[in-house]
Amino acid sequence: MLDEIEIECPYCGATFTALVEPDDADSDYIQDCEVCCNPIHFHVRDDGGGGLAVEVARDDDS
Ligand SMILES: [Zn+2]
After folding, report:
1. Is the pLDDT of residue 59 over 80?
2. Cα of 50 to ligand 1 centre, how many Å?
3. DSSP structure class, residue 38
4. How far apart are CA 33 and CA 48, in angstroms?
5. How far is the CA of 24 from the centre of ligand 1 (A)?
6. What letters, b where the CB count within 10 A reaches 16 and e where it falls short, cover 12-48?
7. Cβ of 5: how many Cβ atoms within 10 Å?
8. Tens-place pLDDT, residues 4-27
9. Of 14, 17, 36, 54, whose CB is crowded by the most CB atoms within 10 A?
10. Where are the domains of the chain?
11. What pLDDT shows up at residue 62?
């Protein structure tokens, strides 16, 4: 089952919806912002209440 989680771009502040599923917990991935095209680092984690939370950060590794 997909969860829709609203996130905010760490570069331009645009908000959009990320789709995550339980299998994504504890995974990391990079997705380009739909607005400014910068690479956003997503970290999906368990929110401790049976749901999922998504943290976003700039991709500072590169
Ligand atoms: Zn952006």
Report:
1. yes
2. 29
3. P
4. 27
5. 22
6. eeeeeebebeeebeeeeeeeebeeeeeebbbebeeee
7. 17
8. 999 999 999 999 999 999 888 999
9. 54
10. 3-58
11. 54
